[in-house]
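Suppose you are handed a protein chain with no further information: no name, no annotation, nothing but its sequence. What can you learn? This example shows the usual starting point.
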Amino acid sequence: MSARDYLNFERQSEFRHEFYKGEIFQVSGASREHNLLVTNLVTSANSQFRGKSCETYSNDMRVHIPATGFFTYPDVVMVCGEPKFLDDEFDTLLNPSVIIEVLLPTTAGFDRGRKFRHYQSIESLGEYLLIAQDEMNVEHLIKQESAGRWHIAEYNAPETGIELPSVGIALKLDEIYERVLKS
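A reasonable first move is to predict its three-dimensional structure. Written in structure tokens, the prediction is:
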């Protein structure tokens, strides 16, 4: 299947699919915890983006990575400045600033490994966050000024604020995990 065929198929499908090297892969549904985390992340980001030229997208904004040909649906995508899209459908973003994935047991290895290698080739991407849904834990990967180098920080204390310099906001763990984890 070509990328053009994939986009034609995907735009008519009731289900979401990722695409890589001619193959499509259906994206699975999400748990209550997963959905709450995504909602909390989007709510926090959007409230801080008021008056700024930044946007937040969740779940259904496809991202295309031209360097590798991968089409994917991150859980949360943030972009500051003018968003760039693949075409006039405005449903495939090319220049994310921050990508966030909520980890599922079945996809955590892929999200940390091969998927991150795809994401690393996006010139505009400054940060990548991996959010655990079964415990309070966030892995924050930050692109360093020197090409090809990423720094990782891990957060797990409720009062912690995670600074996202790529978009000029901070996410608080207690807000991200509100109503998600049982005390």
